Amino acid sequence: MATNGPFGIDPEEFERALREAGIDVRDLIGKAGEYIDRAGSNPLASLLGQFIQPERTRPPKPEGPTTGETGSGVWAIFTLGEDGEARVDQVFPNELEALRAHRDNTDTRRHVRFLPYGVPASVLDAT
Known about the structure:
The chain is of the alpha+beta class.
């Protein structure tokens, strides 16, 4: 052990381990070169393609925003009368406020609907 140095490693064993590691690295580089040659025109893209997910396609958006999406209208709480005619009780700027005001409703004739600007309230009538 005195001839093997302070760590007890024989210099011949150390050289043999480095030689074997060099052979393994050389084989690995050779295999990588073969893979790149088979990849074709863009080897980097094909190599990275294994690790990067392609972007998923999204469904197309509708033609254009609806009146409710643009917010050009009001949310109305209305009551249908005996004759089927609608009477607007309250209006709200957004759906959340209208639904909060309507949440304790027990009257089956009372409803919440979006009413676009410029549309008469008579469209709420039951026909």
